[in-house]
Amino acid sequence: MERKEARRRAQITEKIAKSIVFVFSSISVITTILVVYMLFSETIVFFKEVSIVEFFTSTKWTPTLQPRNFGVLPLLTGTLMIAIGASIIAIPFGLGSAIFLSEYAPKRLRKVLKPILEILAGIPSIVYGFFALTTITPLIRVVLPQTQIFNALSASIAVGIMIIPMVASLSEDAMMAVPDSLRNGAYALGSSQLDVVLKVVLPASISGIGSAFILAISRAIGETMIVAIAAGQSPMFTLNPLESIQTMTGFMVNISMGDIQHGTIEYNTVFAIGSLLFLLTLSMNILARRIVKRHKEGI
Question: Residues with Cβ < 8 Å from 28, sequence gap 6 or more?
């Protein structure tokens, strides 16, 4: 009788836990659907007034000035410049830190270095923005005096520094998950430690490392405060990192804080830019999943 009663209580507890988890997951899915619906419904209203050809081909973006222009290329190139520049900084430094922490550092040193590295992730992004404006930009201007006060290069460096812990921490976790038996097998065949890292650990953890890269790049694309402070507010169609630019997130911040009436075309530009940002990051994640899947199939 006691066993039956205990089993019945366990079954009831299991059902309650299952119901709670189902409610939480349902709320998450419904919230996501509502956000996407709100985003694209307002975007459709925007494209009823603006040609989609003009949106993707025009090199002028002046939605609040006369004459109005709705070419998103200046914002798109500015966003990609920040993402590419930040990736050039974050990926090699983050991956190098991860390799050192997982393969070369003694356990005691790893326990000290990893928390220190992760402190960088806890610094508010607005602090990085002022760091870029007051420290990185003056240093760049010592070497390149023609650099404007607000420029894409200093913002890229600050964003890259900010996402180094994300790349390092996630990559290090992926490498630490590689079984020691693979390492020992390689050592038994006479491989050096560098061979083990390059030919065993990195290929075995490539899915986790790839995910870390994609998450970091997505974080760089979506970064707002640093670019709003350090990159400037000039939607110029340029590839010169020393000039002032404006990113998609920077524009959304500026237009949201301005005196824009609800329902106007200026108001709807926020949703059009937000939709493009959403599709951009979604495409990157899908591409990353396919690359990782192909690599797994090839191993």
Answer: none
